[in-house]
Amino acid sequence: MRDFTSCFSEYAVQVSDTSCSSYSNTSCIISPNNPIPSTQNAVVCLYKTTLSSHKHILVTLTWSKNTLSQGLNISFNDDPSTAVKLSTNSRLFRKLKGTKTLESHNTNIEVFYDLSTARYETGPEPVDGFYVFVTFDSEIGLIIGDLAHEVTMKKLKPGSKMAKFSLISRQEHFSGNSSLYSTKARFCDSGNPHDIIIRYGGENEGLKYPALSVCIDKKTVIRVKRLQWNFRGNQTIFLDGLLVDLMWDVHDWFYNNPSGPGLAVFMFRTRSGMDSRLWLEEKIVKKDHEDKVEFSLMIYACKNIV
C-alpha cells in the first residue's frame, strides 16, 4: 500500500519539478520593471525549547521597525512579565551588547546579546554580525545569529547542556503601496531557504480582472484570476518532501474599508500526509507537547487597493 504522502503529492504542486507546472516562471522574477517590494516592518518568531528535564518553554522574538525606532522584544511562554525589550537603534540606545537576567516559574533565565555590529537589509531582522542566545538554569535553550556559537564557547562553562529547540511559527508584517511581497523561508531544519514572492496585479498584464500569483524559487505555485471573487482559497504544494498547505485571504483588500488599508493574510503550514485538515492556528498549541514539530509561516500584507 502506498503511503499517504505519495498519494497527496500527486495532487499537490511539485515545487522541485519544473515540469509539473504549466504557469510561466517569468512573472516570478523581480526586474527593474516590477514594483519595489513592500516594506517589512515586523517579524515575530516563535521557538519551542525542550529542556533535558522534558520541560517545554515557548520563546517569542519580535523584531520591529518604524520611522522612529527599531528594536527586539523577547518573551517567554506568553508571559508579559518576562519581556526583555532591546532598542537596536544606536541613535536612541547605545548599549547594544549585554546580558539580561530574570526568573519565571522557578526557572533562571539569562539572555546574552550583541547587536552592535549587526547588519540589516530592508527589514527589522538582522542578516548577520550579531548573536542572541538564551539559557534556562544554565542549559542552552536558544541560539540565533551567525556569531552565537563562537560566543557560547567563551561565555558558558565547558560541558553545558544543549536543549532541543525549533522554530515552529514565523509571522511577517508588510506595509506600503506596493503590490509585491518578497521573503525567504525554511520549512524544515534540514531543508534549504526558499525564495517566496507574492504579487498582486493583472490589469497591467493584459488581464481584465485583478489576479494573485504566489511563487517559490521563481516557480508559480498559485495563479488566482478574478481575485475579487476568489478572495479566499487554499492550495497544497509539495516541497522538501513535505506537504505544505498554502491559504490566502485577501477579502479586506476589496471589501473592508475602501478609503483605508486592507489587510491580507497568506499562510503556509507544513503537515503530515495523515493530517487531512488545512490550516488551524490552534494546532500550534496542541503540538507543543509532541515530539514532531510542524512549521508555519504567516504573512500579513497591508495595502491600499485603488
Automatic annotation (TrEMBL):
User: Mind telling me which InterPro entries this protein's record contains?
Assistant: DUF868_pln
Q: Which Pfam families match?
A: DUF868
Q: Which PANTHER family match?
A: EXPRESSED PROTEIN, OS04G0407500 PROTEIN
According to UniProt, the name of this protein is: DUF868 domain-containing protein
User: Source species, please?
Assistant: Buddleja alternifolia
Question: Where is the organism placed in the taxonomic lineage, from the top?
Answer: Eukaryota, Viridiplantae, Streptophyta, Embryophyta, Tracheophyta
